[in-house]
Amino acid sequence: MVDDNDVLLIKQLLDKGVDIIHLRKPECDINYCRFLLNSLTQSERKRIIIHDYPELFDEYSLMGIHLNKNITSLPNDYIGIKTRSCHSIDDILQYKAECDYLLLSPIFDSISKNDYKSRFSHNDLINASIDGIIDHKIIALGGITFDLIDYLKRLNFGGVAMIGGIYNKKSLPFLNDINRYR
pLDDT means per 10 residues in the chain (182 residues)? Predict the structure, then answer.
């Protein structure tokens, strides 16, 4: 299931200023992830956070490892970036101190996963922002499109992560103007 479009998309996103790519391909085996990583330069790989195959972190000198239901802990001597998925305000409170940043989802109804509905009302997000829970360490995920970025910035999110907002595009004209959203 080798897809050169994945390599092209990763390279385009990094070239146009995306800071970090989370490599999450749950339907693919470790060899496909190796194919993707082998297709990138060393400097591009240093901007990759790996999901699902933590052994690739050292093998490819990646930026970090994402903790999730499949990867629940890291070696004691681990020195890379540590991220985690959160699905509630309580999750943020539990994991924020031990991670470099957290992905909070789903902020809006998912574009890429049917029936994956938002878990947060506008008031939930406002209150979490006012209380300092949402800050530079919290990245919004789930149903994110470019037109929502300004709203999420006003809520003090440290950034956004997109899956469907990128993959559901037939073409990627936004890549020409991606720095507008920084």
Answer: 74 88 90 94 96 93 92 88 96 96 93 83 96 97 88 96 66 50 44
Q: For residue 148, what is the DSSP state?
A: G
CB-based contacts of 122: which residues, under 8 Å, 6+ apart? none
The identity of residue 13, as a single letter, is L
What is the Cα–Cα distance from 160 to 146, expressed in whole angstroms? 9
Domains by residue range for the chain, with CATH: 1-72 (3.20.20.70), 80-182 (3.20.20.70)
Beta strands per DSSP E along 25-162: 48-50, 64-67, 81-86, 101-104, 138-141, 159-161
Q: Which amino acid is at 75?
A: P
Tokens of 125: 């997000």
C-alpha closest to that of 120 among 168, 86, 146: 86
